[in-house]
């Protein structure tokens, strides 16, 4: 599709909308970080970056872009891992970092309304001060809420509480045409036509620009206790997961990890992990309103794990221990990245009953494809993360082995009844795998929806199902 190349007249018009030159970047003033997200393998600079402060500013820019067929890329904190916020057709990038206000805490309806640039860690801290709880817990705490909604981010607590989609009550959205509208609201139930709000969640900024979100909150659990459970082998640990899932007790989180990743995290953080005697671990989190309630919940799970060959059950019942374990878990991604020259990531999801088979398969691929693969993940919800490491491979050999390994991973995922992404989205990087995994009719429906919302295809083009 032919897009208009931005010229000095376009820049002048945008400056007239914003009326603050410090919030507009062009040419050499556009920092390198705006050319990519955390994936960093895909790079493309926008022609102009606008640091928006309101839905009205975004609306005026979208109206102008729509009329002149100029591509627009929404951007939050740039922490994505699939190239969702990369300006593939250059054009205008709208940065929401300055739209970072909490607009309303409604304790009567247990909702909070925020701008899209509010960071996840800021939101969590804010509501906890009011003894409330926002359960979605993606690993990247410096991501924006707008980005979390755009990718339907999941995180570790999804086992018990669900994902971002389950906590979005209402959205204010600027459509590609520039019109401002609202989807959903503060209501708990809604059955009034198509679920347009839900179309926005996970759309990666391709259908509309999220400028406000009303989120559901719940009362904050008073106590959190974790169990760190070492197993003699990875197979022992992973084979125990389906049994935990089938039990009557639902932990807040069920994570699996291997010693080699723990050692990476120790080196990265400069802090010792509470235990590294074993090759594999399950990390379980329980929350509730009393110690007795949580002890009753985890007692049967602890016995079950010991019956399955666990070497020990380490109870993290102090804030210091809890902090050291989960800080290490939160550092896994950065620690792995620091242990190699470059990495690419596979975020796949399989039925929970197939987690053990998928993890075992990932482990076997290292020898088969001649590439180092590190994996960890949310074993309780079937969302696994595998990291392909380049190390000292030549560029040619790296691309060949990585592509072979990825093809095999996604083929196995499909065979097990899984999907290409559980929480990171598709963006630009994972489009080939999405096309292989879904029926053509599904892809056609996605592209048809895109055309209805964005007939000029100006909003975040080349992402998800688009060729």
Comma- or semicolon-separated keywords:
467 residues; alpha+beta; Uridine Diphospho-n-acetylenolpyruvylglucosamine Reductase, domain 2; Uridine Diphospho-n-acetylenolpyruvylglucosamine Reductase, domain 3; Alpha-Beta Plaits; 4 domains; four-stranded mixed β-sheet; 15 helices; 18 strands; flavoprotein
Summarize the structure.
This protein has helices spanning 8-18, 55-68, 120-129, 145-151, 158-161, 196-200, 234-246, 259-269, 291-307, 319-330, 332-338, 355-369, 395-415, 431-437, 440-453, and strands at 24-26, 48-51, 72-75, 92-95, 102-106, 111-114, 132-133, 168-174, 180-184, 209-216, 218-219, 223-231, 253-258, 280-288, 314-316, 343-349, 372-378, 383-389. By secondary structure, the chain is of the alpha+beta class.
Structural class: alpha+beta
CATH topology of the largest domain: Uridine Diphospho-n-acetylenolpyruvylglucosamine Reductase, domain 3
Which CATH top level class of the largest domain fits?
Alpha Beta
What is the CA-atom radius of gyration, in angstroms? 23 Å
Helix content bin = 25-40%
The backbone outline, from C-alpha atoms, is: globular
- Round the mean pLDDT to the nearest integer and report it: 94
* DSSP strand tally: 18
SS summary, helix count: 15
Keywords: FAD, Flavoprotein, Oxidoreductase
GO molecular function: FAD binding; oxidoreductase activity
InterPro entries: FAD-bd_oxidored_4_C, FAD-bd_PCMH, FAD-bd_PCMH-like_sf, FAD-bd_PCMH_sub1, FAD-bd_PCMH_sub2, FAD-linked_Oxase-like_C, FAD-linked_OxidoTrans_Type4, Oxid_FAD_bind_N
Cofactor: FAD
